Fold this sequence. Notes:
By secondary structure, the chain is of the alpha/beta class.
Amino acid sequence: xxxxxxxxxxxxxxxxxxxxxxxxxxxxxxxxxxxxxxxxxxxxxxxxxxxxxxxxxxxxxxxxxxxxxxxxxxxxxxxxxxxxxxxxxxxxxxxxxxxxxxxxxxxxxxxxxxxxxxxxxxxxxxxxxxxxxxxxxxxxxxxxxxxxxxxxxxxxxxxxxxxxxxxxxxxxxxxxxxxxxxxxxxxxxxxxxxxxxxxxxxxxxxxxxxxxxxxxxxxxxxxxxxxxxxxxxxxxxxxxxxxxxxxxxxxxxxxxxxxxxxxxxxxxxxxxxxxxxxxxxxxxxxxxxxxxxxxxxxxxxxxxxxxxxxxxxxxxxxxxxxxxxxxxxxxxxxxxxxxxxxxxxxxxxxxxxxxxxxxxxxxxxxxxxxxxxxxxxxxxxxxx
Length: 384
């Protein structure tokens, strides 16, 4: 299902240059202008339920803030922006059919996707390459589908320095990895095995669980049997909350450190400070970042939504950057060439809370921070 999110009315749109972006040709499909309407319609694909549903409110709010900012200026390519929100939870059965219908009818001009890599692969199998697709969250890396721009931080940039930093200071020797059973955890754990070995330790075991798992007794037994002193967590959303609650209740916090690349402020609130001792997260964004860009972003966010706005976190703010990336992409001269060639080796600057820059060839550069949970908040302790 999808629902409209209406944007602020902008100034009158300017005329587009003759080189306006067009959709790429697909088999049996005629080329048509990408920016043919007075209003640019963008599908915002975020999880509205299921394990990752906790990401939804902040992701929708952050995207709406970006749209309001763009529409107060000149929109995108002289057109105002409007969002169509589509449920992109892992258990959504009809996302392929919904997007295919919208694309074939010419009802959407681009996609902002903030969801798991499993959903990204489903979307690409259905409509990959037909319209620009900005994939915003952290992920395993390696996305090279034409027309897809993955702007989030990647496993290699997050895990390698974090594991080495913890190895030098905490000196764990026996790591155990647990994750949901899909592409991001599997790829991340394969990469982590090498990073752990480089740090002088070993990965003594790994386990994968379905989305929606609530009983983690088997995982806790495996930690005991393998005498783990460090846990790599690749669980998402509510599953991360449930595991960490069980981990804390079992009294493991003093015996094992935990490291995650995908645990945000919402999850930490759900876990509770009593269950978060020695819990570390390596990520490109935390709401507590004391940077000029983040302080200004938080001020705009609160001014727009008020004090009861959804909690800011890495997943939510990524849609804000995704919207501004799309604007920079479509506003760029010779956009058609840039779209087809992934911008080649040419960098693309866009408004970024994280001081990120797209360098071309699918590479986004952004600072990576390591934070430790302290009560119900993250304290950033170093930057890589």
